[in-house]
Design brief:
There is one protein chain. The chain has one domain (about 1-105): Alpha-Beta Plaits. The protein has three helices and six strands. It has helices at about 15-30, 60-65, 70-75, and strands spanning about 1-10, 35-45, 50-55, 85-90, 95, 105. The strands form two sheets. Strands 2-3-1-4 form a four-stranded antiparallel sheet. Strands 5-6 form a two-stranded antiparallel sheet. The chain is globular and about 40 Å long.
């Protein structure tokens, strides 16, 4: 399993609008990509810093899904504070949740 972290900066006054875009458009579009496992979207309402953490079944799925990122960001152009997008990908080596058995990559 692989994870991708994307960080963007949203104008703090536009955080609620950004959340609506993520919930209504971006998250469902990402979830429809082949190999998508799950995603978590985080926001700091005071600073406008937003993180998207998505999990993918294989490295190829994560790489191929990157083609959708520019279009998803375009939909958010009205809420972004900057055009800078920071992203990194990692291999998942362990996941622990209170209600599931641990995942060991």
């Amino acid at each position: 399993m692989f994870a991708r972290i994307i960080e963007i900066d949203v104008a703090p006054a536009s955080v609620d609008k950004c959340i609506k875009i993520v919930r209504d458009r971006n998250a469902p579009a990402i979830a429809a990509q082949p190999g998508f496992n799950r995603g978590t979207w985080l926001v700091d309402r005071k600073t406008g810093r937003c993180l998207s953490i998505t999990f993918w079944e294989a490295a190829d799925n994560e790489l191929e899904s990157r083609a959708a990122i520019p279009g998803l960001l375009e939909k958010m152009a009205g809420v972004l504070a900057t055009s800078q997008v920071r992203q990194e990908a990692f291999e998942v080596v362990h996941v622990q949740m209170g209600w599931e058995e641990p995942y060991h990559g």
